[in-house]
Amino acid sequence: xxxxxxxxxxxxxxxxxQKKLIKEGYYAxxxxxxxxxxxxxxxxxxxxxxxxxxxxRMNGFEVLAELRKDEExxxxxxxxxxxxxxxxxxxxxxxxxxxxxLIKTEFDPQEVLEKVRRQVGPPQ
Length: 124
Prior knowledge:
124 residues; 5-stranded parallel sheet; 5 strands; 19% strand; DNA-binding; transcription
């Protein structure tokens, strides 16, 4: 079963994404801040990470920087979830190795599911 880590400090969004992914057959779990996310990535080795940029204790770009330092962890695909669709922020994320991008105000759970499938395939 494919593992998906949802890193999101807005509980409502984290719950929504987690429930949708679980319903579709993925093993989904969440972290509410950047430090917790790094710890879970190191322990659980998810197949993909959905990562918010604005997080307490360590922002999404700091989490990405830490992942990129590790030979194994840098292989994990990351999809950014953000309130901003600013080209400069998207470019910075792409340079950090981000695979895809979602803007919170514009996505629906089905779109998230499709992007996850595109990166890691079906849940099994």
